[in-house]
Amino acid sequence: MKDQNFLSIDYGSTGFLINKNQFYSSCYLDQTVSVNSPVPHLNNIYSFGDEEILIFDMHAALQKLFNINDGGNAELLLIARLEKFSKRIASFFSRIKYKGDILSKDLIGLKIKSDARMITLRIDQLHSLPASVFSFCKRHGLLACSFPGEKKINYLIEIDCICGIFIDSAIAGLKGKKA
Amino acid sequence: MKENEELLKDIAAQEESKNTQAVTEEKIIKFLIFRVGQRLYALHADEVREIIGGNAVFYLPFAPAYVRGLINRHGEPHTVLDVHALLEQNQADADNFLVLKIDDDKIAFLISEILEIIKIPENKINTLTSKESEMRFFKGSISVNDEEVFILHVDNLLRKLDEDLEKV
Known about the structure:
The complex is a heterodimer. Chain A is α+β, with helices and mostly antiparallel strands. Chain A is 25% helix and 40% strand. Helices cover 26% and strands 39% of the residues of chain B. A five-stranded mixed beta sheet of chain B has the order 8-1-2-10-9. In chain B, strands 3-6-7-5-4 form a five-stranded mixed beta sheet, with no helix packed on it. In chain B, β9 and β10 (147-152) form a beta hairpin. The mean pLDDT of chain B is 90. The interface between A and B is medium-sized, with 22 and 26 residues.
């Protein structure tokens, strides 16, 4: 049976899995700089090597979407290539400006909880979501799930979709204001 | 021979009588009567795979209020529907589940408790004549201890779920 590596983010009874192939590096977050952005959870930048990268606060996004109160510290940054995102989302990220044109056009940071860890799962440890909600969940970034215990679920999430939910909501808000 | 002809007639008459009896014999249907909140509902017993309880319900964002989330049944996720939230507009405070027998899906109804299993002749099922849109969620009704209990129409409930999730 095929194995796959995932980043596991734990929030008590609900956890999340991100396919390791969706990001290429990670680092601990120290100092970030705030930027103005119309998108909630997309308002910090971080110096990563020679580049300034935009940060999407995945920790806050997941807490909001899943009504999670378990705080935890979000001090870990996943670095993902924009080419891994859909054209629509990548294009949106790459159009955000800070002090001219200094933000990376290739990378994005995803802020997550500091106690996230890498795990390996066999594919048969992941379950398709029920047919009745499968398409709906997929559209909202929930691809599958695993049950590490009776009282715990881990959702396999699509980061592109999760970011897209907040971007679409911000765009709809901006259009509403203009109208 | 005459005797045998008469015998054959008797046999034929007897068989005809048997057939007539089979046609007129009433079909008996088994129903599960259960409570959700203060309301009683019925389901055809052959639509139910299992009754389970105490499972944790895992939240599904963006779903309508009557989709309470997922449960883990023998390691497989099942969608939990709260008919009380759909039909009475407020969520049931319950932790038992009727797992439905559906070939290509995994669905469970959130219920407060099972009250009884009853057998009813088919002709005792009342047809619903109301044109109210909510009545499409019922196949009919039966009388249980002098109370009218509606029979849930699983196909139409799932159709409603499908329509609602398409919109989100």
